[in-house]
Amino acid sequence: LHVELTCFVLFCFYLLRDFWAGHQGKRKCSLWFNSVIPAGGSVTLNCSVEGSAGWNVYWFRSDSVSSEIQLIREGETNRVISVSQGGLYRCRGGRGDPVYYTEESNEITITETASKPKAKLTAQSLIIPVGGNVTLTCSVNPSSSSGWKYYWYSVEKSSEALTTQDAVFHSNGQISVSQEGLYRCRGGRGNPVYYTEDSQSVRIGKTGEFVFTNNVK
């Protein structure tokens, strides 16, 4: 009798829970933001779920109303992200196994300012000494701007970024090259990646070769 009573109580509990959930509807998300991305910067998006804790957040982005919606972050416990690319953003919460999802949040529009920052390339020297190398430095203005990853290119490799087979990479936006060529760089940060404009190109030559010392624009 005790077992039957316990089963009956549990049955009533789950029945009432499902009834309440069905009439209560899905929980809602709210998305808070700063709508304009400064040149070379980023904005913070905050997704909040009403009610209890324990929600993971799913982030979505599209280029326009008519374009495909893409999932850019999945099941993150952090409800705050920084984005550096314009577009339409929304979020929703999810928890449990199988996952129970909230309603999607309001959709917001993030716009970028017109001008992108430009990367700057400087060379330790325009001539590679015999058996040596030259250090190249890539930077982004303003100097207080942080979080950039740098991408290096040469005319010889077309649009492909340089790899460790082409140069020695340092951690502070510098590389060392021992091959002559025309080099350029750009900065990128965020997810999706926001890129700066390419730097001016700099031609590096070897000892004994004539090098035009003006930077190529």
From TrEMBL:
<keyword id="KW-0732">Signal</keyword>
<dbReference type="GO" id="GO:0007166">
    <property type="term" value="P:cell surface receptor signaling pathway"/>
</dbReference>
<dbReference type="Pfam" id="PF13895">
    <property type="entry name" value="Ig_2"/>
</dbReference>
<feature type="domain" description="Ig-like">
    <location>
        <begin position="117"/>
        <end position="186"/>
    </location>
</feature>
<dbReference type="GO" id="GO:0009897">
    <property type="term" value="C:external side of plasma membrane"/>
</dbReference>
<dbReference type="InterPro" id="IPR036179">
    <property type="entry name" value="Ig-like_dom_sf"/>
</dbReference>
<feature type="domain" description="Ig-like">
    <location>
        <begin position="40"/>
        <end position="111"/>
    </location>
</feature>
<dbReference type="GO" id="GO:0006955">
    <property type="term" value="P:immune response"/>
</dbReference>
<dbReference type="InterPro" id="IPR050488">
    <property type="entry name" value="Ig_Fc_receptor"/>
</dbReference>
<feature type="signal peptide">
    <location>
        <begin position="1"/>
        <end position="21"/>
    </location>
</feature>
<dbReference type="InterPro" id="IPR007110">
    <property type="entry name" value="Ig-like_dom"/>
</dbReference>
<keyword id="KW-1015">Disulfide bond</keyword>
<dbReference type="InterPro" id="IPR013783">
    <property type="entry name" value="Ig-like_fold"/>
</dbReference>
<dbReference type="InterPro" id="IPR003599">
    <property type="entry name" value="Ig_sub"/>
</dbReference>
<protein>
    <recommendedName>
        <fullName>Ig-like domain-containing protein</fullName>
    </recommendedName>
</protein>
<dbReference type="GO" id="GO:0004888">
    <property type="term" value="F:transmembrane signaling receptor activity"/>
</dbReference>
